[in-house]
């Protein structure tokens, strides 16, 4: 099982000193909920996520407690394939094919509430429409950066959620970072 670390505030320095997960420090689910909410608020404030992410979360219930993480694992797996394909298509200057891949990535990003990734896809698609290679290169770099940032922050969120679930007595499967 992965160890879960809190990423903000005073607790971060306490954990750095102890090296222990929160539940071993006697910190309860309420504190973990608060940390999850702070991280989500931060991601909304930064424009990383939008209200579509909240709608996705509302689809999760006791009957499907892993729904959001399963959807996001599929999203990350498919997005990485699309990003790899986009890089190859850019080197081959296949602008029309890039637009198709960008439409797919933009649609899936929008459906999970990945606002900044979606916005970069829009700019990237405009650059492909104008066959602007320099603009496409810049947009691809921005897209890869935003995608990695999103993936890292959502992984952090799900680590906290997994820890909260463990404290509450519910067990979620571990997230696979290699997808």
Question: Key terms for this structure?
Answer:
72% helix; 7 helices; mainly alpha; Four Helix Bundle (Hemerythrin (Met), subunit A); elongated; disordered N terminus; 179 residues
Provide a descriptive summary of the structure in words.
With 179 residues, this protein is an all-alpha fold. It has a domain at 69-150: HPT domain (Four Helix Bundle (Hemerythrin (Met), subunit A)). The protein is 72% helix and 0% strand. GO terms for molecular function: histidine phosphotransfer kinase activity; protein histidine kinase binding. Residues 64-157 form the HPt domain. This is Histidine-containing phosphotransfer protein. InterPro entries: AHP1-5/YPD1, HPT_dom_sf, Sig_transdc_His_kin_Hpt_dom.
Summarize the structure.
With 179 residues, the chain is mostly helical.
Produce the secondary structure layout:
Elements: H1 9-18, H2 29-45, H3 51-58, H4 67-91, H5 95-112, H6 115-129, H7 133-168
Helix pairs in contact: 2-7, 4-5, 4-7, 5-6, 6-7
Keywords: Acetylation, Cytokinin signaling pathway, Cytoplasm, Nucleus, Two-component regulatory system
Function: Functions as a two-component phosphorelay mediators between cytokinin sensor histidine kinases and response regulators (B-type ARRs). Plays an important role in propagating cytokinin signal transduction.
GO molecular function, one term: protein histidine kinase binding
Content-based structural category: mainly alpha
Strand content: under 5%
Q: How many E strands? A: 0
- CATH topology type of the domain at 69-150: Four Helix Bundle (Hemerythrin (Met), subunit A)
Per CATH, the class of the domain at 69-150 reads Mainly Alpha
| Alpha-carbon Rg, integer | 18 Å
Q: Which CATH architecture of the domain at 69-150 would you pick?
A: Up-down Bundle
The topology string of helices and strands comes to HHHHHHH
**What is the terminal separation in angstroms?**
17 Å
Q: What is the helix fraction of residues, given as a range?
A: over 70%
């Amino acid at each position: 099982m992965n160890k879960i670390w809190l990423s903000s505030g005073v607790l971060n320095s306490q954990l750095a000193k102890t090296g222990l997960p929160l539940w071993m420090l006697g910190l309860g689910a309420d504190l973990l909920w608060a940390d999850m909410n702070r991280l989500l608020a931060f991601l909304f404030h930064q424009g990383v996520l939008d209200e579509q992410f909240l709608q996705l979360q509302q689809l999760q219930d006791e009957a499907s407690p892993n729904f959001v993480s399963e959807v996001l694992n599929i999203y990350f797996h498919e997005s990485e394939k699309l990003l790899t394909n986009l890089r190859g298509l850019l080197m081959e200057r296949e602008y029309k094919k890039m637009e198709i891949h960008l439409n797919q990535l933009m649609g899936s990003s929008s459906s999970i509430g990945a606002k900044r990734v979606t916005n970069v896809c829009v700019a990237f698609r405009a650059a492909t429409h104008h066959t602007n290679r320099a603009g496409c290169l810049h947009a691809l770099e921005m897209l890869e950066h935003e995608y990695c940032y999103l993936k890292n922050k959502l992984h952090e969120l799900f680590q906290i959620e997994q820890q909260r679930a463990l404290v509450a007595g519910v067990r979620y499967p571990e997230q696979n970072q290699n997808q």
